[in-house]
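Incident log, structure service

09:12 report received: a user says their structure output differs between two submissions of the same chain.
09:20 pulled the input from the user's history:
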Amino acid sequence: MSDIFQREKGGYWVSKTHLTLDRDTRDNIYDPTSGYNLNLFNAITSKVLGASNNYYQVEGKASQYYSPEIFKKLIVFSAAGKMGAMSMLDSNSMVPMYERYFLGGGDSIRGFPERQVGPVDNQGQVYGGQSMYLLTTEMTHPIYDFVRGAVFCDAGDVQSARFGAYNNLNVGAGYGLRIKLPKVNTPIRLDMAYPVFMQQENVRRTVRFHFNMGYSWSSGGI
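09:34 re-ran on a clean worker, output below:
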């Protein structure tokens, strides 16, 4: 285990205050076909409130949904983006590892392993970053009754600095199924994706399968 992980050993107290601003015009928060959602999130963790460290976090998210009238909401296009940054308030060290950004997996850059996109140490282990961005586009179409197909593409990067240069673009693309079983409120997402453009260290280029239940910001849950 590298020194980066050794320094994170021990326990921490977290006490946080936050402010969220949200604007939502989607026609359905769980299965939108039109409208947009804008979200701004700001949080401060302070020793004054009983926390072990002083740091802040700022995030912005946006998503847009559109279905041309000619398709009568059978085909839906969506695009979403997310950016975030965090930093210590009283030192030049990085924020605690449990707060840092990690990308990869079914809820971020599909085609990459879970939480394996980000800066790595000298042993090839991802230790998380203080800034990130994530972009995703998707087109869904009907297959049969409660099953829809989805063509998607995700792109993003994580940097150790609070305002990163984002020069390690990673892109994953693929196809998936969106299943809404009768009398079951939780949707199921099955995705097969491939890292079409990869600059992340120590990640093998191969097809990956992702399974998710529930909603996320990139699939209409923001």
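09:41 both user submissions now match this output. Likely a transient worker issue. Closing.
09:42 reviewer note: Residues 75 and 141 are 5 Å apart (CA to CA). The radius of gyration is 19 Å.
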